[in-house]
Amino acid sequence: MNASGHDRIDGLRPPHRLRLLDVLNDSERQIVKEASRLVRFRRRQRIYTTGSRADQLFIVRSGVVKLNTISAQGRELILSFLHPGEVFGELAVVDPEPRDHIAEAYEDTEAYAVDSDVLQRLMQGSPQIGCEVAKLLGSRMKAYRTRVEELLFKSAHARVAHTLVDLAGHHGVHDADGVVIPLRLSQRDIANLVGVTRETVNFILKDLRQRNLIENQGRSIRVRAPETLLAQQ
């Protein structure tokens, strides 16, 4: 981890991604600013790994972060992708146990690292901050629970289709022809998101392209018909 000193975090407050900073008053924001460090990671560099000490949370400033875990059989399962303004490692604020997942820079990434004890002290004096941390943890758990239900009860075709719609909803850029997912997703990445083989993903993507539901946009994917994809069984 390469720290580069303090940097301003005032402008990094997209409300749909990060409400934690929004509830801070000016003095609390100053405390977080002074306690934060801007850290940079190269593409594919691990930020932390399973079993590492949970003493910081991170706020993405630029780039993309991938959260994943490795099964007992050695297979990767991607939990989520995070974009600027989003928080990860937040469990460190309430649980000092070692990390149970991996955070990796999916692209060259900058993030603010904040020691968990700083937010713990702020939480003691502000129930609203504690409430926002609880909401953050709850929304993350809800997303993971939904992912598990998808893996258990939906067909491979539906899993791939619904995952593309989900990625488009969270990260997509709208244009005249649909929604472009601005991630350089490989077929292996999609397979690790939905729990199927790369060969299965290749077959399903080909079918979706032939039906004009998706198309390639450079190294990205454009979702042309989200409603139809959601209807996939």
Describe this structure in words.
This protein is of the alpha+beta class and 233 residues long. The protein has two domains: 2-152, Jelly Rolls (Sandwich); 154-230, Arc Repressor Mutant, subunit A, CATH 1.10.10. The protein is 38% helix and 25% strand. The chain is built from seven helices and 13 strands. It has helices at 26-35, 116-125, 127-153, 156-171, 187-194, 198-210, 226-230, and strands at residues 2-3, 36-41, 46-48, 56-62, 65-70, 76-82, 87-88, 102-105, 109-115, 173-175, 178-181, 214-217, 220-223. The strands form three sheets. The chain has a five-stranded antiparallel beta sheet with strand order 1-2-9-4-7. Strands 3-8-5-6 form a four-stranded antiparallel beta sheet. A hairpin with a 2-residue loop joins strand 12 and strand 13. Helix 2 (116-125) packs across helix 3 (127-153), helix 4 (156-171) crosses helix 6 and helix 5 crosses helix 6. It is elongated and about 55 Å long.
Note the topology.
Layout: E1 2-3, H1 26-35, E2 36-41, E3 46-48, E4 56-62, E5 65-70, E6 76-82, E7 87-88, E8 102-105, E9 109-115, H2 116-125, H3 127-153, H4 156-171, E10 173-175, E11 178-181, H5 187-194, H6 198-210, E12 214-217, E13 220-223, H7 226-230
Antiparallel strand pairs: 1-2, 2-9, 3-8, 4-7, 4-9, 5-6, 5-8, 10-11, 11-13, 12-13
